[in-house]
Design brief:
single chain; about 170 residues; alpha+beta; Diaminopimelate Epimerase, Chain A, domain 1; 3 helices
Length: about 170
């Protein structure tokens, strides 16, 4: 993961089915088989929110490993320490961004600081569909990570913005 502590992503195949999303999520966190030709899994040490937008619901699953529940000193000089993240607080932050359209929506009751689930239902009359809500939810999820210093600092000296090749003159 290149040193990332947290990230957000989506799984399309569950199509808003919570049970299938849980299975896909478990596969992400599985220990990879070192003898396998293709490495799969291995994401258990990274905190994440995974979204799945179906036709009627946006399902969200979040996990935060135990070591990410508490503040972590920054490894980058001059960058603030990474604050501890709680899965329930992270998902509730996302849900709160939908307070206007989905009043009172919060994480499912069985959620814990290390594993939380939530869902947003579509409201067709307001043209609120899961695919669009997913984009807004992901933006809210990353905003929460940024507020808690959980994303790597921007490196202005990074050469990844440099375009070399046939289309360099277009930039």
């Amino acid at each position: 993961m290149g040193g990332l502590a947290f990230f957000c992503t989506q799984l399309d195949e569950p199509d808003g089915d919570k049970e299938l999303l849980i299975k896909g999520f478990a596969a992400m966190n599985a220990e990879p088989d070192p003898t396998a030709e293709e490495r799969k899994g291995g994401g258990g040490s990274v905190g994440k929110v995974v979204f799945s937008a179906g036709s009627k619901t946006l399902e969200m699953i979040c996990n935060v490993p135990d070591d990410k529940l508490t503040d972590t000193p920054s490894k980058v000089e001059g960058h603030p320490d990474m604050k501890g993240v709680d899965a329930v607080k992270w998902l509730n932050h996302i849900c709160k961004s939908f307070e206007k359209s989905h009043p009172g929506v919060v994480c499912d009751a069985d959620s814990t600081p290390t594993f939380a689930t939530a869902r947003l239902v579509s409201i067709e009359a307001q043209r609120l569909f899961p695919v669009k809500m997913k984009d807004d939810a992901m933006q809210s999820a990353y905003a929460y990570l940024n507020m808690n210093n959980c994303m790597p600092p921007d490196d202005d000296d990074d050469e990844s913005d440099v375009c070399i090749g046939d289309f360099a003159d277009d930039y």
